[in-house]
Amino acid sequence: MASKQLRILVPVKRVIDYQIKPRVNKTGTAVETTGVKFSINPFDDIAVEEAVRIKEKNKSLVESIHAVSIGPAKAQDILRNCLAKGADTSTLIDSKDVVLEPLAVAKVLKQVVEKQNSNLVIMGKQAIDDDCNNTGQMLAGLLNWPQATNAAKVEFTDNGKVNVTREVDGGEEVVSASLPLVITTDLRLNVPRYVGLQNLMKAKKKPMEKLALKDFSNVDLEPRLKVLSVEEPQPRAPGVKVNSVDELVDKLKEAKVI
Amino acid sequence: MLGSRFARQLVRVAALRDSRCRSLVVRTALTGHIIPDGRFYSSKIQPRLTSEAYPYVKRDPSFKKLTNEDVSFFKSVLSESEVLEASEAEDLAFYNEDWMRKYKGQSRIVLKPKSVEKISKIVKYCNEHRLALVPQGGNTGLVGGSVPVFDEIILSVSNLNQIRSFDAVSGILKCDAGVILENADNFLAEHGYIFPLDLGAKGSCHVGGVVATNAGGLRLLRYGSLHGSVLGLEAVLPNGEILNSMDALRKDNTGYDLKQLFIGSEGTIGIITGVSIMTPTRPKAFNVSFLAVDSYESVQKVFVKAKKDLSEILSAFEFMDCHSQALTKKHLPDAPYPFEDDYPFYVLIETSGANKEHDDAKLESFLESAMEEELVVDGVVAQDETELKNLWQWREMIPESSQAEGGVYKYDVSLPLQDLYSLVEAANVKLEEAGLVGDAPKPVIKAVGYGHVGDGNLHLNVAVREYSKEVEKALEPFVYEFVSSKHGSISAEHGLGFQKKNYVGYSKNKEEIKLMKDLKQHYDPNGILNPYKYI
Ligand SMILES: Cc1cc2nc3c(=O)[nH]c(=O)nc-3n(C[C@H](O)[C@H](O)[C@H](O)COP(=O)(O)OP(=O)(O)OC[C@H]3O[C@@H](n4cnc5c(N)ncnc54)[C@H](O)[C@@H]3O)c2cc1C
């Protein structure tokens, strides 16, 4: 790699806002999306924040932050917020209504990485719509790069290494890798900032490249899974109020949980 | 304070767990010390008995003291779970103390009837035996109206908590008075409708309670007052009669509009048991922007501009001064604050409408030109629903934050818009002159101002370390005189309760007061409903 500076790529996905309760459509084939609020996947928001913080902490370390989203044309709203928060450039890959599986996404992203000459990818560990938690790992595999998943802390050492703290059962695990690297973000990594008005206006002038899936015609986008049906989970039984600790204990015993 | 500072993290953790979480989680996390039954206190300091703090108020000897026979009668009407008696282990503090922990009554019994008929029997009995009653809803009222002053029986409507019917064509909701506001709103949300009133206490206050206080809240600007949206009421009169006007008609000009009298009557002429209310369709798209401005002058200019540029999608316009934000920041140290710098004033703007793209475009061009015209010095826009809720908390958490250090003197006034903030400045000067403001042990932390600019309604909160006569003397009647001199109202939306009973004359003339007293006398000749309060 020519320069030691970071060229960070942050892939972001537009998903149903996580405050909104998703509903299954009438035909039982998918989640209803019309008239539903969409926002940036919260883990991706954390990824953007982390990239910007790395840059703010050490300006000379970062050459560029590029945000990319594969999704409908409206995904430009979330890209614009990324630009407002501090990404320098962005790409929208218009996928129309096509829903891509993680492997296809990873293949497209691989080409973006190559085109952008990125040496660090920071992305959400999963998207809250399908909860797959695959794309980062697959992208690292396809690129043959190391991966540090579920990051709770990211540090750059003087000798050019990246230390990533991961939360694991019973404690923390610190992994170390050199660039290039794929990092996937966990909740505790940071708390994203709000989008400032001034920056939002400036972001309008920042570049947003527009591509379509057909620009990736050499990638096999065919789904490998077939959705048979989509169903709502069983509704939870309503809770009961107890009047005393004894009654609580009785109920718990009845339910065979103690 | 359980959780509030972690609200944001909490949401994210919840998002991780099951990908989705309901707004309820956030709301409850934002509302302070949660105690069983969902209510919360905002201060840890033990309140004094009202009878001790206000020794000039004397118990009316014409009221009978509760006897064993009375209790037996109540038990003959009500089941065991509908009667709570004070005992060594249970002082009924939950019902005797108000939300601010400023007032504390000494009631020995709480009745929680499960039907309107039972309420009717009890009220009739109390009237015949001259037993004084306090109607109680969610007990979130801010003027000491919902708790007894002495030994009044507490009549809680919390067990009347069913939705009666909903017409998805007209949007008319009929429900029991004890339905919690947030539950009503969640129910309506399922049907694509919204409760036309929203306020910080929504997780605890009742539909009947907000009608009884004629609460205004955060969306009055958009949906108007309850005097317009409430279509009918069911109430138990002091003699035990049930007045039913639940038939909800949008238009009905047959005689006096009796229900209007109960809206804002604060439990003094009847117990509201059922409410019919017109609900609007729920907007599909909400936006929230939090702006920093450099003067109160600019707050007004931004308001005028917002009305013009955002017109029909503007649903809330709230302002806050820097002092209120300083207290809130202190109270929520870990919540991400929208700005790095401090500014003199802040404005929260909410838009809601049917079409997100349309609203976004409107809001964007409004914000852009407000920045260009330098009306606004800085600002943020919520990019998702969680940020939207979190931005709201910088407004909604002010009441709790103002009293986190001990207590708060609250004044809720209407003033001509140009004079709105001058009251806060005058109050600070007055308190400074009296040498009451400063670091501990001075009693006053700061007088802060915020409120519903859109409705000409200011909340002056004097944050104190403890309630003291000195502070009260500096503020009252000073605040009321100030408001009166500007021809404002000493009670914009919180009501009169115990706090403002003696100050009505600052906003109403003799004839008005006489007519009110006549009405009270007519409905409640024995004065058993909510005595020592209101008028
Ligand atoms: C955090 C917070 C924010 C608030 N924000 C606002 C705001 O923005 N705007 C605003 O207007 N108010 C606001 N309030 C105050 C508001 O008045 C109350 O929250 C609400 O209206 C009271 O409802 P409640 O069910 O708790 O009634 P309570 O507090 O129980 O009672 C209030 C009064 O109504 C009477 N009452 C209650 N239920 C009945 C009934 N069924 N029949 C007859 N009388 C009854 C009581 O006797 C009492 O006089 C706020 C309060 C809090 C704590």
TrEMBL record, chain A:
What Pfam families has UniProt attached to this entry?
A: ETF
Q: Which InterPro entries match?
A: ET-Flavoprotein_bsu_CS (IPR000049), ETF_a/b_N (IPR014730), ETF_b (IPR012255), ETF_beta_N (IPR033948), Rossmann-like_a/b/a_fold (IPR014729)
Q: Answer yes or no on keyword Mitochondrion.
A: yes
Q: How is the cofactor bound?
A: Binds 1 AMP per subunit.
Q: Which domain of life is it from?
A: Eukaryota
> Any keyword Transmembrane?
no
Cofactor annotation = AMP; FAD
Mind telling me what this protein is named? Probable electron transfer flavoprotein subunit beta
User: Which CDD domains has this protein been placed in?
Assistant: ETF_beta
* Family (UniProt): Belongs to the ETF beta-subunit/FixA family.
| One annotated GO biological process | fatty acid beta-oxidation using acyl-CoA dehydrogenase
Classify the main location. Answer: mitochondrion
Single Gene Ontology MF annotation:
electron transfer activity
Please state where this protein is localized.
Mitochondrion matrix
TrEMBL record, chain B:
The FAD-binding PCMH-type domain is annotated at 103-282
- For this entry, list what GO says about its biological process: lactate metabolic process; malate metabolic process
Cross-referenced InterPro entries, in alphabetical order?
A: FAD-bd_oxidored_4_C, FAD-bd_PCMH, FAD-bd_PCMH-like_sf, FAD-bd_PCMH_sub1, FAD-bd_PCMH_sub2, FAD-linked_Oxase-like_C, FAD-oxidored/transferase_4, Oxid_FAD_bind_N
- Subcellular location, record wording: Mitochondrion
What's the cofactor?
A: FAD
Task: Please give the superkingdom of this protein's source.
Answer: Eukaryota
Give the CC-aspect GO terms.
mitochondrion
Q: Name one GO molecular function term.
A: D-lactate dehydrogenase (cytochrome) activity
Q: Where is the signal peptide?
A: none
Fetch the PANTHER family from UniProt. Answer: D-2-HYDROXYGLUTARATE DEHYDROGENASE, MITOCHONDRIAL (PTHR43716)
Biological role:
Catalyzes the oxidation of D-2-hydroxyglutarate (D-2-HG) to alpha-ketoglutarate. Also catalyzes the oxidation of other D-2-hydroxyacids, such as D-malate (D-MAL) and D-lactate (D-LAC). Exhibits high activities towards D-2-HG and D-MAL but a very weak activity towards D-LAC.
Q: What is this protein called?
A: D-2-hydroxyglutarate dehydrogenase, mitochondrial
Originating species: Torulaspora globosa
Q: What is the lineage of its organism?
A: Eukaryota, Fungi, Dikarya, Ascomycota, Saccharomycotina
